[in-house]
Design goal:
Elements lengths: L1 E5 L20 E2 L2 E2 H11 L4 E7 H11 L2 E2 L2 E8 L4 H12 L6 E5 L2 E3 L3 H10 L7 E7 L7 E5 L5 E6 L10 E9 L19 H8 L3 E5 L5 E3 L3 H12 L5 E2 L4 E2 L4 E3 L2 E2 L4 E2 L4 E3 L2 E2 L4 E2 L4 E3 L2 E2 L4 E2 L4 E3 L2 E2 L4 E2 L4 E3 L2 E2 L8
The chain binds guanosine-5'-triphosphate.
Amino acid sequence: MHAIILAGGKGTRLLPLTEELPKPLIPVAGIPMVAHVMNSLIDAGVTELTFAVSHDTYVPLKTCFSDKYKDVNISYSIEDHALGSAGAVGKACELNRPSRSFFVVNADVITSASLSNMRSIHDSLDARDSLVSILLHETEVTGDFGFVELGAGRRVQKFLEKPVPGITSSKLINAGIWIFSERVIDRLPTDNFARVEETLFPDLVKDEGGLVGITDDGAYWADLGTPEALLAGARYMRHSTKPLIHESAVIEVDAEISNSEIGAGTTVSSSTIISNSLIWDSVTVGSNAKIYDSIIGNNVIIDENARISRAVIGPYAQVSAEFYVRDRAMKSEKRNRN
Ligand code: GTP
């Protein structure tokens, strides 16, 4: 089976972390975020993968995965300008046209739901009717999601993209994991911006009822697009409160590290406290520094005695001891680069 992973976004909500590392490659539980997505797809029988990328995300993704991941062949569909979910899938299908139903997945969603199960349900539906199946997740949270009202036989009766509060009582949201029939490919643009959430999906509901919802039965699901969601999602994916520390990191014995990840080549000095945080590669944490609920990008220097809480620190920044960083993003710096 074929899958297209949408990986061409800008990741603005995770700036400044995404200035240098595209969101799909952000480490989560020790591997790139998108590798979790790829593993779920492989478990569901995917053998051909196309990354739909921008020029900015192409090089880092290709450097990381090249043309193969496990036994899966990878191709790259490169967009000259943002095409949105519809244009990105249309263009990717021009490059490598699936001959049967195929997955389309956002690169930044993780789920414990079985995509194999989703595929079986999709395959069991009447092929004439089910043009697109969407994985649905039930949530109490309101906000920037696509909400779905389901009718009989899993038919989607309403697809409401980011509705104003009160317009629907449905708690089922579009989880960003879809199976497309090959018969919808020719309805997608290949060179202009369009989002399936605003075009194809509402059209399918209106005209043919060909949009089908498959609920995830209470599975864990998260969109890792914000710092808070990234911290929570990584916590879930580690499946343990034990810190995940790269073998090349150097940690002083009296450093207190809990519920956190420490990347390659990072050094943590004595009397530090690191709690519920993601510390990326080659970071220097000075003695007696305290870091809570934060994400620290590659090559950051944190001086001794610094205090950091609920912050996002961009690559190569330096946090000085006098500085108490709280509830803010700190820009990357050009320091020490070669
Ligand atoms: P924000 O700027 O923080 O909203 O992040 P984003 O640009 O990644 O947008 P969003 O989270 O809405 O995107 C969901 C998924 O679609 C991500 O995996 C993106 O990489 C991907 N994506 C968004 N826009 C495009 C696009 O124009 N082309 C492609 N190929 N992928 C896209």
